[in-house]
Specification:
Blueprint lengths: L15 H15 L1 E2 L1 E6 L3 E2 L3 E2 L2 E2 L1 E3 L10 E4 L2 E4 L6 E2 H9 L4 E4 H4 L6 H26 L6 E8 L14 E5 L2 E2 L3 H11 L4 E7 L2 E7 L2 E2 L8 E2 L2 E7 L5 E3 L10 H12 L9 E4 L2 E2 L5 E2 L4 H10 L4 E5 L15 E5 L2 H12 L12
Parallel strand pairs: 7-20, 20-23, 23-24
Antiparallel strand pairs: 1-9, 2-8, 2-10, 3-7, 4-5, 6-19, 11-12, 11-18, 12-13, 12-14, 14-15, 16-17, 21-22
Length: 356
Amino acid sequence: MRAVPSRTTRAARVPFSGWLALGSAGLALLAPTPYILEGPGPAVDLLGEREGRPVLRVEGGEADPGEGTLDMTTVMVGGPPIGTTSLLDLGRGLTDPAVDVVPRELMYPTGVTSDEVGEANSAAMSDSQQTATAAALHELGREVPQRLVVQQLVPGGPAEGVLRAGDEVIAAEGRPVADLEAVRAAVGAAGPDPVTLTVRRDGVEQDLEVPVAAAPEGAPQPWQMGALIETAYDVPVDVELTVPDIGGPSAGLMFALTVIERLTPGAMTGGASIAGTGTITGDGVVGPIGGIPQKVRGAAEAGATTFLAPTANCEELAGRVPEGLTVYPVDTLGQARDIVEAVARGESPAAARTCG
């Protein structure tokens, strides 16, 4: 008998170039990409309280027992300009049905800082509250004084150096103007000659000859001044939102419904859990928003069973409405109010279709 020596084994060595390749791959996965991830954000009950204070306080409004919820919905945004989105993050986002991947440039122009984003969103939220309050009061049959105010001027545009931000436009070509259409009509009739606008500046009325230039091809109006004029509402009701770090105009519809609920007797929701989204104009027209799939998911996670969405966003929800949530498309505040009141009665909203 001869003893057979045991076989020794040695682990194969990974060459330095292999480790280098692995390290490079790992770094590549963590490298920033020019994409933003949109995911479901928290739903905030505008009828509820935060730290012992009403989330949305309406002057003269009263809470009603058993009023249910009216949730504003949000989107959690990750990536530039506030943070970064790595390839690893991107891969996770592409495999998560609740997350959308959006090119950065579609949301934030190059050079925009996080502070600028926050300031713009805060301003939009504040304007949305004022406009929503005006829409709610109009829906309740109450008058709301309004003014046409120059918000900003196009750099190098015809009106630069003539109009100023803050000017209140009260007449065009000697005739009082009550809305933007009247101003546009006067500009169109005057072009290419200057249009005479009567403005109130620092409390003093004055007539200004404002130059007019041809609009770019495809623009809705043939002539333009290069001035952004918006309707400002002098609402007689004070509204205060206590939720920080939420911005943008997309909660306008839910703001307006909350103001109506607070200023009318009884619980408009009938105890139902209702959420929604949508911009709103002073005359109650509901406009489209971004991130609708994420908002319906966030609403469902918060327990809502009914969701109000702008009609223009309905097609985006095909196959993306969570089970147990019914989404109704709306075009106006009045239509949204009718749906809420029907749901409160336990009825199917008349002639209302659904999304998804």
